[in-house]
Amino acid sequence: MTSGIVIRGVRKSYVARGRERLALDRVDLDIAPGEFVAFVGPSGCGKSTLMNMIAGILPIEEGSILHEGRAVSGINRAVGYMTQQDAVLPWRTVADNVDLPLRLHGMAGSARRERVAAMLASVGLNGFERAFPGELSGGMRKRVALAQLLAYEPGTLLMDEPFGALDAQLKLLMQEQLLRIWTERRQTVVFVTHDLAEAITLAQRVVVFSGRPGRIKQIETIALPPARDVFRVRFLPEFEAAYTILWDALSPEIRSGEAA
Amino acid sequence: MSGAVDEVAVTAEPGRTARVRAVEVAAGRRRVAVIVLRIVVGIAFLALWHAASGRWIDTLLISSPEAVGGRLWRWTLDGTLWSNLSITLEATAFGFLIGCGMGFGLGLLFGRFQMVADVFDPYITAIYSIPKIALAPLFIIWFGIGIESKIAVSAAIVFFVIFLNTYTGVREVNPLYVNTTRIMGGGEFAVMRYVIIPSAASWVITGLKVSVPYALVGTVIGEFMSSNSGIGFLISQATGLFNTASVFAGIIVLAVVGAIINTGLKYLEAWVLRWRVS
Questions:
Q1: For A156, which residue in chain B has the nearest alpha carbon?
Q2: What is the pLDDT of residue B248?
Q3: Is residue B165 domain-shared with residue B202, that is, in the same domain?
Q4: Is residue A152 within 8 Å of residue A101, measured between CB atoms?
Q5: Are residues A178 and A237 in the same domain?
Q6: Do A80 and B181 count as a contact with CB atoms less than 8 A apart?
Q7: Kind of pairing, strands A19-31 and A62-67?
């Protein structure tokens, strides 16, 4: 059984100014189908690099990544991808942005219109179909991106600090929406964040990366049920326990990163 | 709706309060004032020209508004205006289309294939540095004194502006848009159509705005050098006869044509880039 994501011996280095810099060193990780996994670590620890390798944006030079039983090489079209930076196309209206992946997957016109309307309704954006992204607030653009991401029903979601640019309250609302969708659909989710509380709130397992070169330092299973109340989960003792353990693993990495 | 956020940047139904109407009325008044003042400036200029002509400055140098107006009127009546203007416009339009087509196509190609761009870079730079006007005599040798040589001059000028703008536009495309569209299932063609071209459009439009007057310049210069029709020909012929009124009439025709084309492009730009929030 080789479903989910299987990462074996992945190593990644960049060559710049005549020097080789190791970004990721010998990473092994198994992510089960339908599992919600968060990557945390200091900046430059390679957590985004690893996610981009699963997405097939960065080539895998050493080691291998199997996604749903297939080795990733080249762009991985079996995933959905969302980043902190807005990726919705500014020259397409809200509806046209959500429509684009459906069009690219060859869905028929009438089915597309229905799906777009349903997706926009599910993220609370009815009435904004014909607005351009530049006319919306940052939070609304995130919801467009979420609707677009979920419209074509990818089995795996790769999210790189998707809510990083939002204010704290809005972030909670987006987390709630994501968690609700995940408990309904049970996609495999890889969620990169620098916010430990966000990782614990959302994920079933939190993977801590060490600073340069990136290695997996610790993996912690969160002893909370998959369906959670994102607003209150932080007051539970399980949350506190996980936070203490993970912070102890994470803080020396952050400190050494700052000192270097 | 759970999770709906009450942050609203665009309101579906704007409230038309008294204040909204007051702001609209003020804006309307301002628009009228601008138009009236424009007309006043134009009339003042003509009056000054009229006063100066023959009194302070020799009519041989600046003619007079009546003489120029009379010349334009006569040209319109006897068909001189249209028969020459249509030649100039035709050469400009063809030169513009050919230059645009080639510039846009090669710009996309060079933008997408770094290797091609790297190899050709010094040659492009060298050719770009040539004042394109210097090519006009060569084009007249190649294509004769007919419309073809004028088309070639304006195409050569337009080509470089559009080519360089398209190339830059393609290089400036946010790679995140490209990657995300590919992950969503887009192939090379879809990326080109949905991401690269719309993203480069603002650069291309800027190129168009710059190059349309150039296309006109290219044609007219070709007509100055050697031809038997066109507005440029009218101007150069009148210059030879010291017919200042005809020279001014020709220049005014060119100015009006240029202004009309630029206005058209402004509307095109506003439509293509309507997604941009001012």
A1: B183
A2: 93
A3: yes
A4: yes
A5: yes
A6: no
A7: unpaired
